[in-house]
């Protein structure tokens, strides 16, 4: 299986460049790059607004547009940090210099048995992660409970366990399953309900569950995030790092969430290198996801020199300017398409 990953580079006339990831390369080149050429790159909010308004010309700010804006926005923040000699995490607020990271990526294979899922949960905990999430991709309630039970046994009582439900159940089933999860001390229940029914059900799940209710990974707009938090009662906002339009819009979402005593933990297990600087900047940042470096399907630990690292379930923020990341040109050359 192969997958394309876009790397966005923004060049300044002083020779510096900033880097972002994600988005659609053709869309960036055709629609957004012309809006930036010749502009002052440090006026990031102004440039973000220009790109966002332009997105309405082609059916509104959908996923392709927002991920492209997000990739460019992150590159602009990287460039800004390099130009002023400061790390991005400090420019974003500098709240903490170490960020908790949880292991993600288990359970996508519906054929994995409960024992196999639990073994992977334990494997990632043994790598130093103090929080592990697995995915539920089948609606069988009893099979789900066996996966949760065995995973909690494998993990022990002191580490955090989360599940991503992927909206496979209807509302009443979600509420019932939330009650059944309670003895296993889940830290959060993610995307428990299909997105066309989430507002009314989130609050019912909150009432039934000891776990936090997390979701919103596909929500890229500020008004959409407001709806999930204020009407739905969402406790952990997970707007994706690039779907949300990058750091500029995520800062607004973080402020919105904090005003309602909610956390923010952006989705994107292939982007811990980009999520961690953001979470380091804001006070209500929770944890960053990562497909562990031991897994063959991840890219974040391979594409830089020196490599971005997660050690003992944490990422130490850099003192280097910008994101502090340099592309491994040999890696890029080998896999460039």
**Average of per-residue pLDDT values:** 94
CATH architecture of the largest domain: Alpha-Beta Barrel
Query: What is the level 1 CATH name of the largest domain?
Result: Alpha Beta
Number of strands: 11
Strand content: 5-15%
Biggest sheet architecture: 9 strands, mixed
Separation of the first and last Cα atoms: 15 Å
Number of discrete domains: 2
How many individual helices? 12
CATH H-level superfamily of the largest domain: Enolase-like C-terminal domain
The gyration radius over C-alpha positions equals 20 Å
Helical content (DSSP H or I, runs of 4+)? 40-55%
Q: Regions with pLDDT < 50 over 5+ consecutive residues?
A: none
Run of helices and strands: EEHHHHEHEHEHEHEHEHEHEEH
Q: What is the CATH topology descriptor of the largest domain?
A: TIM Barrel
The gross shape turns out to be globular
Helix and strand composition category? alpha/beta
Oligomeric state of shown chains: single chain
Walk me through the structure.
- This protein is an alpha/beta fold and 337 residues long.
- The protein folds into 2 domains: 7-84, Enolase-like, N-terminal domain (Enolase-like, domain 1), CATH 3.30.390.10; 90-316, TIM Barrel.
- Helix content is 42%, strand content 14%.
- It is built from 12 helices and 11 strands.
- The protein has helices spanning 25-36, 44-55, 63-84, 88-91, 114-126, 141-155, 171-181, 198-208, 222-231, 247-259, 272-281, 329-335; strands spanning 7-11, 17-21, 98-106, 131-135, 160-164, 188-190, 212-215, 236-237, 263-264, 288-290, 314-316.
- Strands 3, 4, 5, 6, 7, 8, 9, 10 and 11 form a 9-stranded mixed sheet that branches.
- Helix 6 (141-155) links the parallel strand 4 (131-135) and strand 5 (160-164).
- Helix 1 packs across helix 3 (63-84).
- The longest helix is centred in the N-terminal third of the chain and has 22 residues, at 63-84.
- It starts with 6 loop residues before the first strand and ends with a helix.
- 49% of the residues are buried.
- The mean pLDDT is 94.
- Residues 114-212 form the Mandelate racemase/muconate lactonizing enzyme C-terminal domain.
- Its cofactor is Mg(2+).
- It comes from Handelsmanbacteria sp. (strain RIFCSPLOWO2_12_FULL_64_10).
- One of its GO terms (molecular function) is magnesium ion binding.
- Keywords: Magnesium, Metal-binding.
